[in-house]
């Protein structure tokens, strides 16, 4: 069940259903609701907070039955598009156009809420994925953050020759291995290919996918990964960097929140290096948003609320307390190195993927992450492509 919170009891009300398990995020929405009601007398904002599991059950029910809260939080990319294609989400293009919102939001964020050049949501937050490393380790070996694949391989080889495992990963929960597939595919084949592949439109036996696994196999064959990754979750794999036994890790920015305070200043970030120069810099950045179900009757209060969510005040306050990044590129991020680096990368991204399990359906997401992790053990490209193709035919066709 959701937790129902009403700021006041007034005539003109809107209900907003929010997927949130964070106390600071809830407080931010509550403060914003009170501020909104003060700015628009006669309005009432009713906030209903849901856990992840409850929200995902409820959203299916609301959209299928055609009744429920007026505004819903949700996620960008294909998870939004599925409801757009079912005609269950309102087109907000007029609102975007009349208020010039395209000028405020990053290109990648706009892409993740758009289909056929129409806008279907207001982005609220996202965060970057990329490589985190020890600056002191790189300094000792005269290494620079690599910008391309050749330089990346050189960094890995230099670390290995120094007795340091280049890359640490904990894949006991499987999903961390998906980040490697996602980024290799984005850098080799691009975002459109990646999205069509994960929606079942391209077979996993395609040459483009083979290229991804051949690149990955090269890293595995060279011994660039920690060896017992299958027995650790991502957090258990991080002490290798704390003790300078590993050089870097590919992870989301939630990693920075768990860094030991004494070591945090020594950690730095760089985006996944370029592989194919013809492919723009697409990034992995799971994004949250607000959307309006098609059953909702639009009115000025709803429009004002959406615009206030898009505005600088909410975007900054909400993302500062969440340690996330505002998709509104006019927001000045808080004084945090990793947030600032992430904002720079995402503001310049040509487009965004959402992460493997968000960009495909649930069954394919579960199967794929297991297959990726098994590949790290077997290094068998043919068997992996066959397993993924079997999963595509079972779950995506």
UniProtKB/TrEMBL annotation:
Give the organism the record lists: Paraglaciecola chathamensis S18K6
**Record keywords:** Sugar transport, Transport
* Protein name, UniProt field: Multiple sugar transport system substrate-binding protein
**A GO cellular component annotation in the UniProt record:** periplasmic space
Q: What is its main location?
A: periplasm
Q: Which domain of life is it from?
A: Bacteria
What protein family does this chain belong to? Belongs to the bacterial solute-binding protein 1 family.
Identify one Pfam family in the record: SBP_bac_1
Query: Cross-referenced SUPFAM superfamilies, in alphabetical order?
Result: Periplasmic binding protein-like II
Quote the subcellular location field of this record. Periplasm
Q: Which InterPro entries does this UniProt record tie to the protein? A: Bact_solute-bd_prot1 (IPR050490), SBP (IPR006059)
């Amino acid at each position: 069940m959701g937790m129902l919170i009403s700021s006041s009891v007034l005539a003109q009300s809107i209900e907003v259903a929010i997927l949130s398990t964070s106390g600071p995020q809830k407080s931010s929405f509550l403060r914003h609701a009170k501020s909104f009601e003060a700015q628009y007398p006669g309005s009432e904002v009713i906030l209903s907070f849901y856990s992840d599991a409850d929200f995902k059950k409820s959203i299916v029910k609301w959209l299928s039955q055609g009744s429920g809260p007026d505004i819903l939080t949700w996620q960008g990319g294909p998870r939004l598009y599925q409801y757009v294609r079912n005609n269950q989400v309102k087109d907000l293009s007029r609102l975007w156009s009349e208020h010039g919102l395209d000028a405020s939001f990053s290109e990648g964020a706009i892409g993740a809420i758009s289909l056929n050049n129409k806008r279907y949501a207001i982005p609220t937050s996202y965060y970057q994925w990329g490589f985190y490393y020890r600056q002191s380790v790189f300094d000792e070996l005269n290494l620079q953050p690599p910008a391309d694949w050749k330089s990346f391989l050189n960094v890995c080889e230099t670390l290995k020759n120094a007795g340091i495992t280049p890359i640490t990963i904990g894949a006991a929960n499987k999903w961390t291995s998906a980040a490697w597939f996602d980024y290799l595919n984005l850098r080799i084949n691009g975002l459109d290919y990646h999205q069509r592949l994960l929606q079942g439109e391209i077979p996993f036996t395609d040459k483009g996918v083979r290229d991804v696994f051949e690149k990955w196999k090269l890293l595995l064959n060279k011994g660039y990964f920690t060896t017992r990754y299958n027995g650790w979750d991502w957090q258990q794999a991080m002490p290798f960097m704390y003790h300078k036994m590993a050089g870097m890790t590919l992870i989301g920015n939630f990693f920075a929140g768990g860094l030991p305070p004494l070591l945090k200043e020594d950690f730095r970030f760089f985006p996944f290096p370029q592989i194919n120069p013809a492919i723009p810099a697409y990034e992995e950045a799971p994004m949250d948003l607000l959307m309006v179900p098609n059953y909702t009757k639009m009115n000025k209060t709803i429009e004002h609320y959406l615009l206030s969510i898009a505005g600088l005040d909410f975007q900054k306050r909400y993302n500062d307390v969440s340690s996330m990044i505002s998709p509104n590129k006019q927001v000045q991020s808080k004084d945090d190195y990793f947030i600032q680096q992430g904002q720079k990368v995402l503001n310049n991204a040509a487009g965004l993927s959402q992460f493997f399990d968000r960009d495909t359906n649930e069954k394919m997401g579960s199967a794929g992450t297991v297959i990726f992790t098994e590949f790290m053990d077997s290094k068998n490209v043919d068997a992996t492509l066959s397993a993924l193709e079997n999963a595509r035919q079972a779950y995506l066709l």
